[in-house]
Amino acid sequence: HAITSDDALVLDEIPKNSIVIVGAGYISVEFSSIYRGFGADVHLMYRKPLPLTGFDEECRAQVADDLKGRGMHLYPDTTPTKIEKNEDGSFTVHYKSGDQESSIKTGLVMFGTGRKPNTHGIGLEEVGVKLDDREGVQVDEYSRTSVPNIYAIGDVTNRLALTPVAIMEGMAFAATVFGNKPTPPDYRTVPSACFVQPPLAYVGYTEEEAVAKCSGDIDVFVSKFKPMKNTISLRDERTFMK
């Protein structure tokens, strides 16, 4: 009754009426923008108060405002409970928000709630490699697993699931093992981007992380303005910088 982001890339046609997207990570908010850009009526459901868990709280709130400003329907603190297929080919999504239960009829349902590492069936358990509670390979700061001569890098370790980060982890591994220079991957200043519309990018700590690391002794600078392109095109969307 639902598709994944893989299926979403090979659809024969754009949803004619509406689409319910479950989740609010990178994949969900990016596909929300894509389908909205094609004219679909987008309904985004997620369990947290704001989309994009892990990003700066103020930036997350700005993204939520931008999504609503583009005509999307947001359902924070919401969990789908059942999906039914109707005789006309549409679907009814039943959901719960707090103590309230309701439903919505839609043409398509997509789940973008994350993925688990594909760690089964390759013999890890047989040789003693330990997995974490999300089925990712447990590693130390040098990417070494619980078996000393086996290392793991990339998404399979449940660290930062970004391609450039996996490349950096591979270079650190090579320096450690083949260069005799113990080098742990450095995640402090990893830039990241989410191709929501308008796009979001950041590097460094979030405000919440900075406060925690500096005992609250930080300065925060924020700027919010309408860029020239939106002024000329008479759009209300504003740029947010922090």
From TrEMBL:
Record EC number: 1.8.1.7
Pfam family, one: Pyr_redox_2
Residue ranges of domain FAD/NAD(P)-binding in the record: 2-170
UniProt lineage: Eukaryota, Viridiplantae, Chlorophyta, core chlorophytes, Trebouxiophyceae
Protein name per UniProt: glutathione-disulfide reductase
InterPro entries, alphabetized: FAD/NAD-bd_sf, FAD/NAD-binding_dom, GSHR/TRXR-like, Pyr_nucl-diS_OxRdtase_dimer
Any one GO MF annotation of this record: flavin adenine dinucleotide binding
Cofactor: FAD
GO BP annotations listed: cell redox homeostasis; cellular response to oxidative stress; glutathione metabolic process
Reactions it catalyzes: 2 glutathione + NADP(+) = glutathione disulfide + NADPH + H(+)
Organism of derivation: Pseudococcomyxa simplex
Family named by the database record: Belongs to the class-I pyridine nucleotide-disulfide oxidoreductase family.
Summary of subunit composition and partner proteins: Homodimer.
Domain Pyridine nucleotide-disulphide oxidoreductase dimerisation: 190-242
